[in-house]
Write a structure and sequence with these properties.
Strand content of chain A: under 5%
CATH superfamily of the largest domain in chain B: MetI-like
CATH class of chain A: Mainly Alpha
Number of domains of chain A: 1
Number of domains of chain B: 2
Distance between the termini of chain B: 48 Å
Oligomer: heterodimer
Number of strands of chain B: 0
Mean pLDDT of chain B: 86
Number of strands of chain A: 0
Shape of chain B: globular
Radius of gyration of chain A: 24 Å
Structural class of chain B: mainly alpha
Helix content of chain B: 55-70%
Strand content of chain B: under 5%
Largest sheet of chain B: none
Helix content of chain A: over 70%
Largest sheet of chain A: none
CATH architecture of the largest domain in chain B: Orthogonal Bundle
Low-confidence stretches of chain B: 277-283
């Protein structure tokens, strides 16, 4: 077998990744941590150090609104998106004619991902004299000025991301297809109805994927940028200025790098806290399922 | 009346439900295609898909210049100037890294694996400001070779792809490696001659995913590309919307259509040639 000396050389394979990790991720992260405690301005430099950025974030109206809107967006978007994904995956897991075509059609929107093109399409649909209002008025329903009122504007963005539920749907579908049929047969013999089978068998069996999808969807939602940037430009009156948008403006319009770094760290901590919460919850629930599973 | 058994009724109901859902999902895309062939005055006038009086000025004008510096074909070319090197570098770096993690033991492997997985959950947004300052200091902003967008790919910057490929490496029995070693291959030769051919479908998936993400990426070019003549397609789409919305939506939507087309074609290519069930790794 390979000698000790040779074995050590195998670390060379991951060296490029490690170098990239240190140079493009770890170092910038640390740098931004330090920078967040200064008032670094791209042209004026540093004049002061201390906690003022964090103070400004935690007391400023603009930043608190951005944090609130980001959380509101994420906590509305993720359950709706995963709910739609799971429901469709359950529907698609049954043997139905043309199942492959259906799968493709449901997946199609999610290919567009965070692309600008999808956002522009959405803007064309939801503008004041756009497609959706055209349909509403044809049906004699009241039209809504989607993009010039704060709440509808946020919902328009949520709807765009919910529409793109194909990626988590595919993961759910794969997990659903791996559940052994015997479990359902046994439950049916015991007289369990459809709903009970779903909550007692399906959901526990796919719970790892549920957690994975949840964490991933939250990570994506918390850093949502292109949709509000393209569709509403953060408006109306700041109604869709999520953290990433405020961060972008602070850094690249106002050149307040220090403040932007502090905002980035707030976003990072929010994201880490939510991920950690779900990982802990998962550990608890998986343990729980193990206990129950040994009937 | 035709008499149907209960299970057949359920099946028909199921089918109808799926059809309605699919129609709602695809309708915006079909409307978009139809709208590019409408005149601007009747673009939003009806919600149908097919234009009553098809016109082609949206498409024709989509290919004309914006401000003399940038047009659709040029933006497309710029995108491929980023995409092609990025995909090639990604393939090499991701394969080597995944191979190292999946097949070998070395000191600190547990810690390094944890770091690798943690980067998946690290929001990229957090890194934009410090990375921008790094590239600014390196003098890479607005570089004609798109260095800030491409170079990180040489260092396996997309951890998700590494993790995905690691799963595929694990799916290949170690017996292959051992047989190759007996035949006198060193580990690099084993990778190249034995494992890479087996992994080909997975590598197609990696390339297509990277291609799609790069094509869609907006924040990167927004920060690092300043000269309009170098704008890639994603920035061009936004530019065309800002220039035209309110006047020439058919032109804007035709540009949009051109942006979506490669992605949708690639998706079907991917379904045909790549490893199954890798389409949903990341959005």
């Amino acid at each position: 077998m390979t000698g000790h000396k040779k074995r050590r050389l195998h670390i060379l394979y991951i060296l490029p990744w490690l170098a990239g990790f240190l140079l493009f991720r770890a170092a910038p992260m640390l740098y931004s941590l330090v920078c967040g405690f200064t008032d670094f301005h791209l042209f004026r430099g540093i004049t002061e150090t201390g906690l003022m950025n964090y103070e400004r974030i935690l007391t400023g109206y603009e930043s608190l609104r951005a944090i609130w809107l980001t959380l509101k967006f994420a906590f509305l978007c993720v359950p709706l998106k995963l709910g739609a994904a799971l429901l469709t995956a359950v529907l698609l897991s049954k043997p139905v004619r043309g199942i492959r075509t259906f799968r493709t059609l449901y997946y199609l929107p999610s290919i567009l991902g965070s692309s600008v093109a999808a956002a522009v399409l959405w803007k064309a649909m939801f503008r004041d004299r756009g497609l959706i209002n055209g349909i509403l008025s044809a049906l004699h329903l009241p039209v809504v000025s989607w993009l010039s009122e704060q709440n509808p504007a946020l919902w328009v963005i949520i709807l765009l991301r919910v529409w793109e539920f194909g990626a988590p749907m595919l993961l759910f579908l794969t997990a659903l297809q791996e559940i052994p049929q015997e479990l359902y047969d046994a439950a049916t013999l015991d007289g369990a109805d459809g709903l009970r089978r779903f909550f007692r068998i399906t959901l526990p069996m796919i719970s790892p994927v549920v957690f994975y999808n949840t964490v991933l969807a939250f990570c994506a939602a918390l850093q949502e940028f292109s949709a509000p940037f393209v569709i509403t430009e953060g408006g109306p009156r700041g109604g869709t200025t999520l953290i990433s948008l405020l961060l972008y403006r602070s850094a690249f319009t106002a050149n307040e790098m220090g403040y932007a770094c502090a905002l980035a760290w707030v976003l990072f901590l929010l994201s880490a806290a939510i991920s950690a919460f779900f990982l802990l919850l998962r550990r608890k629930l998986v343990f729980f399922a193990d206990e129950e599973g040994t009937l | 009346m035709i008499h149907l058994s209960c299970s057949a009724k359920v099946r028909i109901l199921w089918f109808l439900l799926l059809t309605v859902g699919a129609a709602v999902m695809v309708y915006p895309l079909l409307w978009l295609i139809g709208a590019t062939f409408r005149s601007n005055s009747e673009l939003f006038a009806s919600a149908g898909i097919f234009p009553l009086h098809p016109v082609f000025d949206g498409w024709r004008r989509a290919f004309s210049d914006y401000g003399g510096q940038i047009n659709l074909m040029r933006a497309l070319r710029n995108t491929y100037l980023i995409v092609i090197p990025k995909v090639v570098l990604t393939l090499i770096s991701v394969t080597l890294t995944a191979y190292g993690f999946a097949r070998f033991q070395f000191r600190g492997k547990r810690l390094l694996t944890a770091l690798l997985f943690s980067t998946v959950f690290l929001p990229q947004t957090v890194l934009y400001v410090p990375q921008f300052m790094l590239f600014h200091r390196l003098g890479w902003i607005d570089s004609p070779a798109y260095l800030p967008l491409i170079v990180p790919a040489a260092f396996a910057g997309d951890a998700v792809l590494v993790i995905m490929l690691m799963q595929f490496f694990r799916g290949i029995p170690k017996a292959y490696d051992e047989a190759a070693a007996l035949d006198g291959c060193n580990s690099l030769q084993t990778l190249w001659y034995v494992l890479v051919p087996i992994l080909r479908p997975a590598l197609v998936s990696v390339s297509i995913l990277q291609l799609l993400w790069t094509f869609n990426d907006y924040m990167g070019p927004l920060l690092y590309v300043r000269t309009p003549a170098r704008y890639p397609f994603s920035v061009f789409v936004k530019l065309s919307m800002d220039a035209d919305s309110g006047f020439a939506w058919n032109r804007v939507l035709a540009v949009c259509c051109m942006a979506m087309l490669p992605q949708i074609i690639l998706y079907f290519v991917m379904q045909r040639f790549s490893a199954p069930e890798t389409g949903g790794v990341k959005e």
